[in-house]
Write a structure and sequence with these properties.
heterodimer, A: alpha/beta, two-stranded antiparallel ribbon, 15 strands, globular, B: alpha/beta, Rossmann fold, 2 domains, elongated, binds flavin-adenine dinucleotide, binds adenosine monophosphate
């Protein structure tokens, strides 16, 4: 079984969000980059768990990005990917990303493609669904559980107010979220092994953006908290009713 | 024409779809065109009543094969319908199913897409949609360059606008490809409003010390008619179920009222709740970062403050 895990690079969750060049560009100054948590904790670790059960599983990683994504890819290899492909295309457009990945996916004939639920920077939640259209394969989104037996898969996904379990066969695209697997820390042996694992770079082929970011804005700052005496909850109820008008 | 996809589960229209209609109808007005709705599968609801939310016409693909949600099948059908009907903008709710199909529909229509929109597009020069990015910490204004456009709208960001129109319902015949997914079980939490649809949410953190102490929070939620949520360490420790975990890596919500009890307000937690209209923070530490993001704060021991708040709410209800 071959699994393709889509790995994206995002700012650390505590990164200061600021913009430069007339609010048209994210300020990368001092930003620490991490593997998008959904891709690392859930998609990649799930693939590793499947490989631990069945050593014949091959885990390929794909990232669409510049050379600065390589430390991220090396970390993913250290956690347990077998080999990686970087498509040298610097873009924030999910459609370009999806088309680049679709080309790799077609070539590699993967049984399963894992994405994260969304990237925590642009929050598109689009790449998995776009791959579904580009590859005409089954797509199960917001997956919280997956079992694989031969080419049969059982997936549990989140639905509004609960969960739904379905069965299908490979090939399939699955977007992963909490529940799929538990976060892991790379060990020394993994880090050493990652240095020599293959990381192939292929040139970008797609450039037809369908959208463009005009500018960014930060939300207006809160005007300041109104403190209420803990002995006067009647006052809080009054404010929620009469001032905030939410109850 | 602006076409709005109506999401359903168990043959009932989801609340998020009504908001999507109101958004689509307002956009149609702005563009000087009509708003029409697309329903896929059997539904129990009276479809003419969708007129109230702003559509003149409802296209109904009344095919039982669409009752179960299969992203590949539904996106194929919706794209075919949008082409047949000549839609220029297709609107989805940015809920779980909307996320699963809107991008696929955009690909099939060669349309540019903005997911998670939080306001009407600016259409005086071009077509620019504002969406939340960095998990609610910022907004981006995104220009869609293509002739056909797809937008999914964040829940609770536009609201529903009620009128008194009645829509006409027309059957639409679109070929439905065979599904290769079978749904084997559905596990719904009974009687609770799904967190993403809730307008009032009461949430607890590690400050409550243990699952045995959740009673005070549940009592408050009950008095308010609110749904319950929690911080990540709480669900990681299995004090509360995983589906209650809100934040950067949990679910993102935007209720009218979010009451945070014993939650410090870490940036990753705020990322899931900072779009809430009103935030109340109850924490014994006056330095807790959450107070900076709050509208109302109570510095005090949750074990004393929460029961007092519950009592005050019950009193105000009884007295009203
Ligand atoms: C990549 C990443 C992603 C993350 N994603 C999320 C996420 O999605 N959601 C999330 O919630 N967290 C997330 N976290 C974790 C986050 O950083 C915090 O650790 C977490 O939110 C803290 O949870 P807490 O506020 O419940 O606990 P704590 O930080 O321990 O805070 C407990 C609070 O309770 C108060 N308290 C204690 N006793 C009382 C009392 N008797 N009465 C009143 N108040 C009391 C304390 O003053 C304190 O402020 C993430 C972290 C990382 C690194
Ligand atoms: N540049 C990228 N390279 C590889 N995978 C990506 C990239 N961007 C997004 N993805 C994958 O697609 C998922 C959803 O991303 P998005 O649709 O951009 O929110 C992510 O969790 C990744 O798994």
């Amino acid at each position: 079984m071959k699994i393709l895990v889509c790995i994206s690079k995002t700012p650390d969750t505590t990164a200061k969000i600021a913009f430069i060049e007339g609010n048209t560009k994210f300020d990368e100054n001092g930003v620490q980059w991490i593997i998008n948590p959904y891709d690392e904790w859930y998609a990649l670790v799930k693939a590793i768990e499947l490989k631990e059960k069945d050593p014949s599983v091959a885990i390929h990683l794909v990232t669409v990005g510049g050379a600065d994504t390589e430390p991220i890819i090396r970390k993913a290899l250290a956690l347990g990917g077998d080999e990686a492909i970087r498509i040298n295309n610097i873009t924030t457009d999910s459609f370009i990303v999806a088309q680049e990945i679709a080309a790799i996916a077609k070539e590699g004939a993967y049984d399963l493609i894992f994405t994260g639920k969304e990237t925590i920077d642009y929050n598109s939640a689009s790449v998995g669904s776009m791959l579904c259209a580009l590859l005409d394969q089954n797509f199960i989104s917001a997956a919280v559980k997956l079992e694989v037996t031969g080419n049969a898969i059982t997936v549990t996904r989140e639905i509004e107010g609960g969960e739904e379990t379905c069965t299908t066969t490979t090939p399939a695209i699955i977007s992963c979220q909490k529940g799929m697997a538990e976060q892991r820390i790379p060990n020394m042996r993994g880090i050493m092994a990652a240095r020599t694992k293959p990381l192939k770079v292929v040139e970008a082929t797609i450039s037809n953006a369908t959208t463009s970011i005009k500018n960014f804005d930060l939300p207006p700052a809160k005007s300041g908290v109104k403190l209420i005496d803990p002995d006067n909850m009647d006052e809080l109820v009054r404010l929620l009713k009469e001032e905030a008008k939410v109850i | 024409m602006v076409l709005i996809y109506i999401d359903q589960a168990d043959q009932e229209i989801k609340k998020a779809s009504y908001e999507a209609i109101s958004y689509g109808a307002a956009l149609a007005k702005q563009l000087g065109t009509t708003a029409e709705a697309l329903v896929a599968g059997n539904v129990k609801d009276d479809l003419t009543s969708l007129g109230k939310y702003g559509v003149s016409k409802v296209h109904h693909i009344n095919n039982a094969a669409l009752n179960n949600f299969d992203a590949r099948v539904v996106s194929t059908v919706v794209a075919a319908a949008a082409k047949t009907l000549g839609a220029t903008v297709v609107i989805f709710a940015h809920n779980i199913n909307g996320r699963a199909i809107a991008p696929a529909v955009a690909v099939k229509l060669s349309a540019g897409i903005v997911t998670g929109a939080c306001a009407l597009p600016k259409t005086d020069a071009g077509f620019v949609v504002t969406k939340t990015v960095f998990s609610g910490k910022a907004f981006a204004s995104i220009q869609i360059e293509t002739a056909v456009k797809v937008i999914s709208i964040n829940q609770n960001s536009f609201g529903t606008v009620l009128g008194n129109e009645v829509a006409t319902v027309a059957a639409l015949d679109i070929a439905v490809p065979a599904s290769t997914i079978s749904i084997t079980s559905v596990d719904k939490i009974q009687g609770e409003v799904p967190l993403t649809e809730a307008s009032l949410v009461v949430s607890g953190g590690r400050g409550l010390k243990g699952p045995e102490n959740w009673g005070i929070l549940l009592d408050l939620a009950k008095a308010l008619g609110a749904s319950t949520a929690c911080s990540r360490p709480v669900s990681d420790a299995d004090w509360r179920p995983h589906h209650e975990h809100v934040g950067q890596t949990g679910i993102q919500i935007a209720p009218n009222l979010y009451i945070a009890i014993g939650i410090s307000g870490a940036i990753q937690h705020l990322a899931g709740v900072n779009r809430s209209k009103t935030i109340v923070v109850i924490n014994k530490d006056p330095e807790a970062p959450f107070f900076k993001a709050a509208d109302y704060g109570v510095v005090g021991d949750a074990f004393v403050v929460v029961p007092a708040l519950t009592a005050a709410i019950l009193k105000s209800k009884g007295g009203a």
